DNA sequence: TTGTAAGCGTTATCAA
DNA sequence: TTGATAACGCTTACAA
């Protein structure tokens, strides 16, 4: 360690580099100067080997690589994660749990090569990684289907968001409010439906108008079609995400009905689908980048043994545009 | 190293693990067995420290993190990279060159923490990383603006693709073929325009009908508007990407013209915009995932000192749908 | 507060 | 072909 040539022992250099408090200010100064002139960069591998800390966090990408990457949700989460990690010493590394090599990932993660894991398997019930959590700190994006009670995770407050959507609909005078719900085997699907129900009950309105979709545009269109086909009075719709709302949107217009005059429409997520239609969607903002940031922050706290809440629920906000 | 407890020296274990040829078959066998029963996983840090090889490849993400991640091109490249790397011992790590911490990335990369770098700054002329290449193997996605001559990169054959597009237009009887070209400060913009020109010249047709866009839907629409405004005969359009083609598409229909009967339209990229319009676009397929795969393969070859072509140009193929 | 010295788990050199 | 043994560059008791 060449920096020692600037006056002190390697131990002291190490202390300075790692910000130990117990070092004489003058020594700190001269070491820092030496570091600068020698352009010294600590060797990560050596540091890891000695300290048994890797300063590496793995982003675990589930099986269906192609689908996940195409998903803007994923991209935005990663963006948030990267942003936070940039302010720390941690490096981010991605591992896709290859179908081909099931054990490889496992071994890598358990092999002490990583300080913690971030799991972004947003849909796909595959939470085969939960068992890792007793070997390694793990934070999930979204509430896991199983073992939610002992998992660390960050999610948006889906129920609150849906409630706000319904309240908007009610406050603009709607009385017959339907929902296009998401799959009931996914927490967001369940929670958004519950929020819708809650809002209606609060106002003493009926919750009979429910149709289900799978979060795709096509399924939203089909659900809207069924809703209209019921022949019941209908003047407001809450779709559990913007994609389904977009599908409903086109069906409503195709039926010669006006948005929002005849049917008001509120979506959820505030993504490109919300602004990609005309009139643009009033929707619930899903703070995805913040979710990623929070996940990373939580994981780092966990790793460093600082207090960390087991679950973090991010608040939503209603974005009012033209559709409701 | 506990595995040594199964008969031999640590040196031999190392040889077996690393597949050295000069080891007695019986020893190989017993070591492998020991590895299995002890569930031994080599320690990356120790290996790196001793061998000065990190088995880590960095994916360098340019400044504007949010834009890049939103770009499906980026996501797909990463997918390809990850896929190839999964078949190797290399790990992928992402570093976003934070505006906040300009030197940090630099030091990390130069600090011997990485075996090679993949740069995916698809647009954004910022190739401030080219100087790294004399310290570290680097492979770029797309031909770099500067120093293309001494850079390693993978690109799609833009000129060939554009040529095929024009040939399609000609073969379906079009005589007055325009182009909506991309920015001329980006290699794909330049090359696709050149391909269009080449096709027309080959056929003895005029190359007068050129308008420029910036690869966005809106710019494509505006360019189409200008093309139509010229009042010249026009029965075919080649747009330099599908987004601009989609913009042109809506303008054509809005003018009461039919696609492809009145104006045939060919795009480039074969992305979601090609299938998102009705009639769907005939377009040039851009093999993005393959590009990522090839980049990774090239980098690994470079790192391991095996022969590697300086530039790899991926072939395109025409996807015939309804618009031409 | 500072220095000494013992690892950390591999690979690599050199004899045997 | 195999085995000692010395690095690799850092952290961290433990002493001073």
From TrEMBL, chains A, B:
Name of the molecule in the record: LacI family transcriptional regulator
Keywords, in A-Z order: DNA-binding, Transcription, Transcription regulation
SUPFAM superfamilies (UniProt xref): lambda repressor-like DNA-binding domains, Periplasmic binding protein-like I
One Pfam family linked to the record: LacI
PANTHER family: HTH-TYPE TRANSCRIPTIONAL REGULATOR GALS (PTHR30146:SF109), LACI-RELATED TRANSCRIPTIONAL REPRESSOR (PTHR30146)
Domain named HTH lacI-type: residues: 1-51
């Amino acid at each position: 360690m060449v920096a020692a040539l600037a006056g002190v022992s390697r131990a002291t250099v190490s202390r300075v580099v790692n910000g130990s408090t117990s070092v004489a200010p003058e020594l700190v100064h001269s070491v820092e100067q030496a570091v600068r002139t020698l352009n010294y960069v600590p060797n990560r591998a050596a540091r890891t080997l000695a300290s048994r800390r890797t300063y590496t966090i793995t982003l675990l990408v589930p099986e269906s690589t192609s689908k996940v990457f195409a998903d803007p949700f994923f991209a935005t989460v990663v963006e948030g994660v990267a942003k936070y990690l940039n302010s720390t010493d941690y490096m981010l590394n991605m591992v896709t749990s290859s179908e081909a090599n099931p054990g490889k990932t496992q071994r890598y993660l358990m092999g002490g090569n990583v300080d913690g894991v971030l799991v972004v398997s947003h849909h796909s019930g595959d939470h085969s990684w939960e068992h890792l959590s007793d070997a390694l700190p793990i934070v999930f994006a979204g509430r896991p289907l199983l073992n939610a009670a002992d998992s660390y995770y960050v999610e948006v407050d889906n129920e609150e968001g849906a409630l706000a959507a319904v309240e908007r609909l009610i406050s603009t005078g709607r009385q017959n409010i339907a929902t296009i719900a998401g799959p009931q085997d996914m927490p967001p699907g369940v929670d958004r439906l519950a929020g819708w129900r809650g809002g209606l009950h609060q106002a003493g309105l009926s919750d009979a108008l429910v149709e289900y979709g799978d979060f795709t545009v096509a399924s939203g269109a089909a659900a809207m079609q069924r809703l209209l086909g019921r022949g019941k009075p209908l003047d407001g719709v809450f779709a559990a995400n913007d994609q389904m709302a977009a599908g409903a949107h086109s069906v409503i217009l195709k039926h010669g009905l006006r948005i929002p005059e005849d049917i008001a429409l509120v979506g959820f997520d505030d993504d490109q689908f919300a602004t990609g239609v005309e009139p643009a969607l009033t929707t619930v903002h899903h703070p995805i980048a913040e979710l990623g940031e929070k996940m990373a922050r939580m994981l780092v706290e966990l790793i460093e043994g600082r207090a960390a809440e087991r679950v973090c629920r991010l608040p939503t906000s209603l974005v009012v545009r033209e559709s409701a």
